[in-house]
Amino acid sequence: MTGQSIPHRYARLSITLHWLMLALFVGVYGCIELKGLLPRGGHLRTLFLGLHGLFGVSIFVLVWFRLLARLTPRPPITPTPPAWQTGISHVVHLALYGLMIVTPVLGWMMLSVAGKPIPYFEFPLPLPVTIAPELAKQFKHWHELLGSAGYWLIGLHAAAGLFHHYYVGDNTLRRMLPRR
Length: 180
Prior knowledge:
The protein is mostly helical. It has helices spanning 12-37, 43-69, 83-113, 133-168; strands spanning 118-120, 123-125. The protein has a two-stranded antiparallel ribbon. The mean pLDDT is 91.
């Protein structure tokens, strides 16, 4: 970079979106786990299911801003990790972005083919497909499968950040922490 210093941290927008997405993921997974503990047909169960959808659509909306934010310069990891770790990091990040895009789309398709509207802050999302209840089970299967994979992907991502911070001692985690 000529005339510019290399950043040591991610840009404020990237940091904010990263931690906001974490909060939304906690909301998505927390709501679906709590919903599973409640009796069918209850108002609280319906509330948690609605919040699950709201948080999921919010993740889908914000992921596009995250992808745009990735166009800004990224701070290097120091010391530089081995190439195999960088490769795995890229694969996990690609999988996380796929999770943030595909899982909400599958949820939307699942509800759409079942003829169930999806309200988003009182604005109903359009039904992109014709009603075909037999497809709802297939979309539900894939939505839940990716959701379950998300536990592992997010856990792996968090564990890698902590491993780099506490064991390797590099700046991987510090680059994404808010300023103190």
